[in-house]
Amino acid sequence: MLLKIIKHIFSYLLWPFIVLNCLWPNIVLANEPCLTNIEILAKVTEWGRIAKVVDGDTIHLKDGRKIRLIGINTPEIGRQGKPSQPFARQAQKVLNQLLERNKKIGLAYDQDKKDRYKRLLAYVSLEDGRSIEQILLARGLAHSIVVPPNDSRINCYRAIEKQAHDTKLGIWRLPENQWVDAHKLPSHSKGYRFVYGTISDYSESRKSIYLKLSSKLSIRIAKKDKPYFSNRQFKRLVGKPVKLRGWVSTYSGRQSIHIRTEHDLEL
Questions:
Q1: Within a domain: residue 20?
Q2: Residue 9 counted as domain residue
Q3: pTM here?
Q4: Quick check: is 68 catalytic?
Q5: Taking CA atoms, which of 15, 52, 210, 257 is between 20 and 30 Å from 1?
Q6: Side-chain-side CA neighbours of residue 184 (13 Å)
Q7: Domain of residue 219, residue span
């Protein structure tokens, strides 16, 4: 009990330093999982100038390149008559304020440089070293996500996200962003969800591994993603309680939650 109280106090003491490092340059805290602003600048590969902010996680540069920010996902802007998701416009507005037209930005890369839509994948920073991704996470306007193999900053992003979640900022006020028992996940659920439960069975198809959480919900891991899990003995997880996050979909009346990396699965 005493250890839990100490951890709780430390979490609240740590949070202001993380936020300050997102908003002002050169503030350093020992053992803090995020890069300092100076370190972020040292990793910048090239500089570009803003032409347009598309939404909370996508921008266009003046040279014509389309940039998808690495490691975060913001709510979707409504297109073709569809409504925007909650906080989508707020995320877009904040990004517009940070990245007005012709603004100079730094670009840093991870292992994969392009996504399936041919957009350039980059970590984006301001000239003073502030991370755009960290600012959006700190304000509760984005989820931290991992699309492997690009995961070099995920520990930082998850630490910032946790504090935004714990203080109910932005998207973390919404019911769909709360942890839910696998047995109680509504049948109409879709999108990015947070689930906990106990794995009761293991099965495979030609392309995927399935870990059963309830009569209607299973974890799905594509076999091509196995290299992104350090412990690949998935059968040994049967009977284990887990927490996970991922994309929920429904096929033939059965739900699955797709995870791609060990960062999305807590034992």
A1: no
A2: no
A3: 0.86
A4: yes
A5: 15
A6: 10
A7: 178-266
Question: Residue 10 domain-assigned?
Answer: no
In the set 68, 139, 193, 220, the catalytic residue is 68
Q: Establish whether 76 is a catalytic residue.
A: yes
Q: For residue 34, what is the enclosing H or E element?
A: none
* Among 179, 209, 218, CA closest to 196: 179
Which is the catalytic residue, given 32, 76, 176, 262?
A: 76
Q: Is 206 a catalytic residue?
A: no
Verify that 194 and 156 share a domain, yes or no: no
Let me know whether 187 and 214 are in one domain.
yes
Please report, for the domain that includes residue 146, its CATH number: 2.40.50.90
How far apart CA 111 and CA 151 sit, in angstroms, is 9
| Last residue within a domain, chosen from 115, 146, 172 | 172
Q: Which residues contact 86 (CB under 8 A, 6 or more apart)?
A: 75, 171, 174
Show pLDDT as tens, one digit a residue, over the chain (267 residues): 544 444 444 444 444 444 444 544 333 333 358 999 999 999 999 999 999 999 999 999 999 999 999 999 999 999 888 999 999 999 999 999 999 999 999 999 999 999 999 999 999 999 999 999 999 999 999 999 999 999 999 999 999 999 999 999 999 999 999 999 999 999 889 999 999 999 999 999 999 999 999 999 999 999 999 999 998 899 999 999 999 999 999 987 789 999 999 999 999
